[in-house]
Amino acid sequence: MKMHIIIIIIIIIIIIIIIIIIIIIIIIIIIIIIIIIIIIIIIIIIIIIVIVIIIIIIIIIIVIVIVFMIGVSIYPYLNE
User: What transmembrane ranges does the database entry give (predicted)?
Assistant: First the structure.
């Protein structure tokens, strides 16, 4: 009878250990997934910021070129 109780206790302990290991593995997987998602979001935000900065720089260059071209084309008439 004592042997049965010991076997049952050992089985229960093994089951508890397996459950704990499974829970830990699931938590680790969830944490890894969250970290990957955060990294992807950060990369996307950085790409968007870089694209916006490039667009702004291009617009500024275009405006400067247009203003310069208008200035060059008007300049001869200003001296008259």
Answer: 6-39, 46-78
For 32-63, the DSSP string reads: HHHHHHHHHHHHHHHHHHHHHHHHHHHHHHHH
Between the alpha carbon of residue 71 and those of residues 57, 61, 65, 68, the distances in Å are 21, 15, 10, 5
pTM of the model: 0.56
Q: What is the pLDDT along the chain (80 residues), one digit of tens a residue?
A: 677 888 899 999 999 999 999 999 999 999 999 999 999 999 999 999 999 999 999 999 999 999 988 888 777 776 66
C-alpha to C-alpha distance for 52 and 46, rounded to whole angstroms: 10
- Compute the distance between CA of residue 62 and CA of residue 67 in angstroms, rounded to an integer: 9
